[in-house]
Amino acid sequence: MALTIPDLYTGGLPPARPPIPDDHVQRWACRRCVVARTGWTLPVRVWACVHDEVCPRHNLWIGREVFTPEQQLDLTRTPDVIRAQRRYWRLRRRYGPTATDTCQEATSKLWSGLAHRHYRLNRRVELLHDLARVKGPEVAPDRTAPWRIAAGYPERVTLIGLFASAHWRRAVLNDDLLVVAQALAEFHRRFPLQTPLRGTSRTWLSTTIEATARQIEGLLNPSRGATASTAR
Ligand SMILES: [Zn+2]
């Protein structure tokens, strides 16, 4: 503004506004934070880090798929979603942003594939679904509420943590089949399927786990991944 109004222009450069980091997006501020800080109930838009999915003060889901402040789901009955947020930040500090982002992106296909093959989340889905707003007289659950994505968040973080471990990735890609079997057993221990996958789904899972580990290894350690990627 100083540059556009001559009287205000003092000759020096206008004070630089700190740049908005790449991992920030505009979204609704936690509705309870707004009330606590301002006393208002009017919704407020803010720049916020995309990795902050949960307001740790108020236990609300404030991240992805929240399109109105009312869609910020209360996570009080699903404390593992709140713990997953803390765990995510621990992973990010431990493995660094590059490795964490790489694993997050690379595992999204595996996660959506599991969901597509009826990987069933525990009671979290039902608990959060019950909280979803109901619309007018037809009492249909609000399909746009982020209950499903919030319910699966702990599993998403577990997947990232598993694939972020170079030790585990290399076990999956090992030539020794016993080592591979142990690594896959570790996967199944962390992702107990309520209904075991059969036939092509079973093959899909082990193939996708291996391909994902290879992809991440290739991106994070290109020299190691070069030989691995030719085998794909
Ligand atoms: Zn809050």
Kindly describe this structure.
The protein has helices at 31-38, 79-116, 124-131, 147-151, 153-164, 166-172, 177-190, 199-220, 222-230; strands at 24-28, 45-49, 54-55, 60-61, 134-135, 140-141. By secondary structure, it is mainly alpha-helical. The longest helix has 38 residues, at 79-116. The radius of gyration is 22 Å and the shape is globular. It starts with 23 loop residues before the first strand and ends with a helix. The structure holds zinc ion (ZN). Residues 30, 32-33, 55, 57-58, 60 line the site of zinc ion.
Q: Which class of secondary structure composition applies to the elements?
A: mainly alpha
What order do the SSEs take from the amino end to the carboxyl end, as H and E?
Answer: EHEEEHHEEHHHHHH
Quaternary structure classification: single chain
General form = globular
Strand order of the largest sheet: 1-2
CA distance, first residue to last residue: 56 Å
Biggest pleated-sheet summary? 2 strands, antiparallel
Q: On the 0-100 scale, what is the average pLDDT?
A: 83
Estimate the helix proportion, in percent: 40-55%
**What is the overall number of helices?**
9
Ligand species: zinc ion
Name the beta content range.
5-15%
The total strand number stands at: 6
Structural Rg: 22 Å
The residue ranges in which pLDDT falls below 50 over 5 or more consecutive positions are: 1-10, 134-139, 228-232
Q: Can you lay out the helices and strands and say which pair or pack?
A:
Layout: E1 24-28, H1 31-38, E2 45-49, E3 54-55, E4 60-61, H2 79-116, H3 124-131, E5 134-135, E6 140-141, H4 147-151, H5 153-164, H6 166-172, H7 177-190, H8 199-220, H9 222-230
Antiparallel strand pairs: 1-2, 3-4, 5-6
Bound molecules: zinc ion.
